[in-house]
Amino acid sequence: QVQLVETGGGLVQPGGSLRLSCAASTRIFNNSNMAWYRRAPGKQREWVATISPTGRPSYLDSVKGRFTISRDAAKNTVYLQMVSLMPEDTAIYYCNTSPFPLENWGQGTQVTVSS
After folding, report:
1. pLDDT for 66-107, tens place per residue?
2. 94 has which bridge partners?
3. What are phi and psi of 64, to 5 degrees?
4. Of residues 104 and 64, which shows the higher confidence score?
5. In this structure, what are the phi and psi dihedrals at residue 41, rounded to the nearest 5 degrees?
6. How far apart are CA 41 and CA 44, in angstroms?
7. With bands split at pLDDT 50, 70 and 90, how would you rate the model's confidence at 29?
8. Average pLDDT, the chain
9. Where are the extended beta strands (E) located within the chain?
């Protein structure tokens, strides 16, 4: 069974930093683009960043220069390093494949940016 487990969220003040982690099943990790998505309160889920199997990243314009996506093949894990966080980054963050997410999403990890 495919599993996606996101961790690392929390409450942080504006300007703060967090690093999210997502552990994925080997079967889906090795040959897939892996991505982070987020769902803010009252909004639809949106794509945030993608990293290819070869490590090529792409980002939503509003997070460019602040977020960095990376992957560790040995650990089947994808990361999202977030700095200079803003209140509008508050959301539940999920990882999944890209551009076609798997049907089964993980539980996500809550990121709250507030003073």
Report:
1. 999 999 999 999 999 999 999 999 999 999 999 999 998 999
2. 37
3. -60, 135
4. 64
5. -55, 130
6. 8
7. confident
8. 95
9. 4-7, 10-12, 18-24, 33-39, 46-51, 57-59, 67-72, 77-82, 91-98, 109-113
Q: Which residue has the tokens 């798997």?
A: 102
- In angstroms, the CA 4 to CA 10 distance is 18
Closest CA to 89 of 108, 59, 62: 62
72 beta partners: 77
Strand-strand pairing, 109-113 and 10-12:
parallel
CA distance 99 to 66: 22
Nearest CA-CA partner of 63 in 78, 52, 74, 47: 47
- The rounded distance, in Å, linking the Cα atoms of 113 and 64 is 18
- Unique residue bearing structure tokens 């509003």: 62
| Averaged pLDDT, 10-22 | 98
Instruction: Quote the CA–CA distance of 95 and 7 in Å, as a whole number.
Output: 10
User: Which two three-digit tokens encode residue 71?
Assistant: 């992957």
